[in-house]
Every structure is written in structure tokens, then in C-alpha cells.
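User: Can you predict the 3D structure of Curlin? Sequence below.
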Amino acid sequence: MKKQILLGAAFLFAASMTFGQTNGNRVDCDDCSIPQVDCLDCSIDQLVSGPRGADINTSLVDQDGVGNTAIVDQYGDGNFSTVKQDGQMNMYGGVGNEAYVDQYGVKNHSDIKQEGNYNYGEVYQEGFKNYAKQDVGVGWAEYNDAFAHQYGEENTSFQKQRYDNNMAHVDQEGIANYAEQDQSSGANGANGSTAYIWQFGTENQAKQMQRGSDNNAVAIQEGFQNTSSEDQMSDAGGSSWNNSYVDQWGAWNLSCVYQDATGRGAYNDSFVWQTGENNSSFVNQYARRFGSNVSSVVQNWFLYGHDNVSKVNQVAIAGRNNSDVWQEGSHNMSVVDQYAVRRSSNTSSVYQFGGGNTSGVGQYASSGASNESNVMQSGAGNYSAVNQNAEGIGSWNDSDVFQDGYDNYSCVDQNAIGGFSNMSIVSQIGDNNQSFVDQNAITASNTSNVNQMGNGNLSCVTQVGTTGTPF
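Assistant: Sure. Here are the predicted C-alpha cells for Curlin:
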């Protein structure tokens, strides 16, 4: 099954931006429109669960009650192990059961099923095309731990945990491995669930899905052409927050984060760190009922990289959006779309260091909401586009752009309708810089400040307002 997330579909304002590498060769002061950026997609291929077609040696362990321990060791090819601990002798389900499975060889299969609280399951597999599955939880199952360790090629791990305070961990080393974890927590005194995936190698895939309250997900991948997908949905019952941390080292890696917090005071927090070249990061966040979205993307913090892409989409209803993007290297692209309503706020900060970088920021705020954008670019051939729309009493736009280098280009488009003000500051240092500011205010004021140093600079400021004092 292929899952595709189209980014940017939820945003209603007209700056559906898409752009390629564009240098600052514009001289038309009558046109300061924002370039368009194509809608980017994020996809991941899901492997089919189930045995790998071999069952030479077979082991079945079925235990009822509490405090049971199952240990299975299998050597060779085509081993098949099933461990079931269901606790039918206890009204609360199995309590304190433990299962350990070690398999060495090719096409081995391990299946662990545990019900109840305080259970522990661990699978160790070494070889080729091995399969490990753990299915944990029934009733109000809590405090269960599931571990899977796989070393080799084309290994697969599936771990499913139900209800609260559970922890799942997968580590894989090799080529073309697949790990999937699915956790769901209810409102029965839950602090949520924690999922962790570590993969080292090439063409590995990590998929984590969490539903309920207080979700935590960590994915660490080292190598090339790895994919990480984090899908979190938090609702009422706990603190209603989602935390996601993704760390990728290498090249051609892809990270996709989707977070939806629906409870009152909901909170989404995403941190993506990518080191290398041709890496892509896509973050989608939705917060409702006085919720908050926080996204941080770092690409090539220690090493200079090239052709990295970061896209952040944020929607907040009666809450706030905050996005920070840091990119080092050349030909990197950052796109931030933020949508805030009902006394919400949008804040975006973009830092780019290197040559030929592109930054696009689109912000929409209404009903007393605010937009704030900060763009800092250092290097040659940088390009910055900012589009801000504020509607309603008390809404306002604020944009700060700083560029250091040559052949830089800055475009700021601000619209305040029935709001407070448009404020724009542009600072450019170097040769052949160009600045375009377009401000439109209805029952609001416009303020523009442009500072340029060097030779061959061009500044174009257009202000339209029905009230207020343009200067």
C-alpha cells in the first residue's frame, strides 16, 4: 500500500507558491508577485506482513496466567516461532509475562502475542528475509515493552501496541529493511506511548503511527535512500500532544511528519535533522482548540550540503504556529506555509547559508491573528519571497529580510484588511541586490524600511492604503 500526503492542500490563501532556482534579475517595479511552488508529495511503500514462506522448524508456546517466561532459540533456515501469553486465568489479563525469541538463519518467522499489563517481549534475528511481529494489549493494557533487533537484509518488523504507557523499539542494520510500529492509547489514565526506530544501512524504511494522547516518536537513520514516515494523531484524554524527532545522516533520505492534535490545548512538536545531500523533509501540522504547532528543520548543521528541500505546513485554530528552518550549503530550498485563525499567530524563521538558496514564506492570519517572518540569507545568488495576508481587527504583518552577498533578490508582499499594520524591513549588503516591497492596507497602516549597501542595488516600494500614514 502506498500512502501519499499532498502538502499545502489545506491552505486557502492565493499564494500557492512554487518556485525553482530564480536569480534576482527583475527590474519591473509594477510586478512584485510571489513565485509559484509546486505541491510536493510524500510517499512510502508498505510491505506485506506475514511469514516468509518457510517453516522447517516449528515452535509453539501457549501460556496462561501471570509471571510466565518463554524462551525460544532457533538456528538454521526456515524457523517458525509462535508465543502466546493471554492471561486467561486472571481477570485483568496477563500480568508480568516475558517472551524472548532468538533466531539465526534465513526466512525465519517470529510471532509474539501478549495481553494485559507489564508484559515484555524481545526478538533477535540475524540473517536474511527474517520476519518479526509483536501484537500487545487487550482491555486497558498498560506498561508493555516490545523490542525487535534485526541484522541483515530485507528483514521486516511489525509491532502493534494498544492502550497506554507502552513502549516499542526496533533497531535494524543492513539493506532494504522495513520497520513499522502502530500504537493506540485510550483515555484510561494514559500518559501516552513511545515508539523508537533506529536503522543503519541503505534503502531502509521506517513507519510509525500513533493515535490517542501524549505520543512520542523517534526515528534515527544512517545511510542512503532511507525513508521515515511519522503519523501522529492526539485527541482528548491526556495532555493531547505529539512529539516527533527524526535524525537522518547520508544522502537521498526522505522524512515525512504528519501531526494532528485535536484536544483543548493541543500541542504538536516536530524536529527534523538531516545531514548530507539531496535530503528532503516534509512537515504537516494541525492544531485545534487553543493548540500550538512547533516545527524545527535543520539540514547540514555540521557539514555543507547541496540540493536539500524543506517544506513546512502549519494550521492553527485559536493557537499558534512556529517554524524554524536552518539550511547550510548551496541550492537548498525552504518553503513555509502557515494558516492561523481566531487570535492565533504565525511565526517563521528561515536561515540559509551558502549560494543559490531559495526561501518562500506564505502566511495567512485572520480574526485578530498575526504574521511574523524572519529570513536571513548569507552567500551568493540567494532568493527570498514573503507573502503575508492579515484580515480582521487587530491583525498585523511583520517581515524582516536580511541578505549578505551578491546577486540577492528579495520580494515582500503584505496585505492587511481591517487589521492593524504592515511592517517590512529589508537589509541587503553586497552588489546587484534587488528589493521589492508591495504593501496594501485597508483601514490599516504601511511601514517599509529598505537598507542597501554596495553598487547596482535596486529598491522598489509600492504602498496603497485607505487610512494610516504611508512613509
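The first strand starts at residue 2 and ends at 6. The mean pLDDT is 82.
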